[in-house]
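Quick one:
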Amino acid sequence: MAMILDIERAHPSYMREKGESQDATKTKETSFAKIDDWMRAFYAVAKIWSG
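Output:
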């Protein structure tokens, strides 16, 4: 019974941390997509300038 109570107490913390992890992953993926777009544009301009 004590183990069940421990799990019930720990569950809200687990759910909060799980949500934070998902938010961090979404932020990371968005950032990498923006960097990828920027790098593509940069290389396109660099290619034009280099001849």
